[in-house]
Amino acid sequence: QVHLVESGGGSVQAGGSLRLSCAAFGYTYSDYCMGWFRQAPGKEREAVAVIDSDGPSYADSVKGRFTISQDNAKTTLYLQMDNLKPWDTAMYYCAADPVCPIGYPSDYGRYYWGQGTQVTVSS
Fold first, then answer.
1. CA gap 28, 47 in Å, rounded
2. Residues 47-73: tens digit of each pLDDT
């Protein structure tokens, strides 16, 4: 049973930073592609940053501000978010998919999801 637990969300002012963590249990991490997604009220869930054997990929809206990484044991996924903007406000979710690449909305039903962590950025 794959289990993902996010943490690190909170409230910050614009220009601030947060670091999200996703602890993964129940599978061999290297067998999955992983990613961070977000969903703002009234909007569709979108991929923010994903990572696979080819390295990281980012949504255009976060390039240069967000960095996805993993620990050496590959049991924890991180998202370092710098220079946060009010439009980054959303619920952030960690996801894992045994089929790579990860990030296509049509595949969301197959993913393992965490419970989400709220990020609120005030202007």
1. 22
2. 999 988 888 999 999 999 999 998 877
